[in-house]
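Severity: low
Component: inverse-folding endpoint
Summary: output formatting inconsistent between runs
Steps to reproduce: submit the following structure tokens with default settings.
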């Protein structure tokens, strides 16, 4: 790896420590705020410089997706086994973890960088993040303000899902017993179970929770 400038070392150290504490990379905007850059373009410029010097490795075919090349590893065309694969996924607004509501995302409102090994989700799927609003899932350790990573796939009994029930969205546990219609269960004794009158559609399964400390 080529010698880094002082600022490049600071950025790499910040990313490494953040990843160690949280299991995922800081967002581009968090790096911008940490170093008081005027724009996110400045962040990407430093990341490209770190890539050229062999400190990080871009994942082929995925924009803004990197792995850290750990100290002691030689620059190589192959990706080191102990490198961290980080992907950037869209944040599509908030989801009720309380009573269902009619609030729907108007589109992407931000980006979140996640270590896919720590988050245990499939990078090939079009995963996205939603911010939790409410306390109906606190017994599953999902709290108001958390980010949940949603992986679009068919739900199984017991999965925590982002669901559309009778036209309203919510985050709940999906219950499907043999021979019975599915329903949604809160993880808070003060919230009722939800049975659809006409429609219950699963938008994706929650795979990980991202929390700001």
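Observed output (run 2 of 3):
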């Amino acid at each position: 790896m080529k010698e880094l400038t002082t600022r490049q070392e600071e950025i790499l150290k910040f990313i490494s420590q953040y990843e160690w504490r949280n299991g995922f990379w800081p967002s581009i905007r968090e790096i911008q705020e940490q170093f008081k850059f005027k724009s996110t373009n400045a962040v990407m410029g430093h990341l490209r410089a770190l890539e050229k010097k062999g400190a990080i490795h871009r994942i082929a075919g995925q924009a803004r997706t990197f792995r850290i090349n750990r100290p002691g590893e030689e620059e190589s065309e192959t990706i080191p086994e102990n490198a961290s694969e980080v992907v950037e996924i869209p944040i599509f607004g908030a989801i009720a973890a309380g009573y269902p509501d009619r609030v729907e995302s108007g589109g992407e409102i931000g980006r979140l960088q996640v270590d896919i090994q720590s988050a245990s989700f499939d990078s090939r799927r079009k995963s996205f993040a939603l911010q939790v609003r409410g306390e109906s899932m606190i017994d599953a350790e999902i709290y108001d303000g958390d980010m949940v990573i949603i992986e679009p796939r068919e739900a199984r009994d017991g999965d925590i899902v982002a669901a559309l029930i009778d036209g309203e969205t919510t985050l709940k546990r999906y219950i499907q017993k043999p021979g019975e219609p599915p329903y949604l269960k809160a993880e808070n004794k003060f919230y009722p179970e939800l049975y659809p009158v006409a429609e219950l559609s699963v938008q994706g399964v929650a795979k990980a929770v991202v929390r700001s400390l």
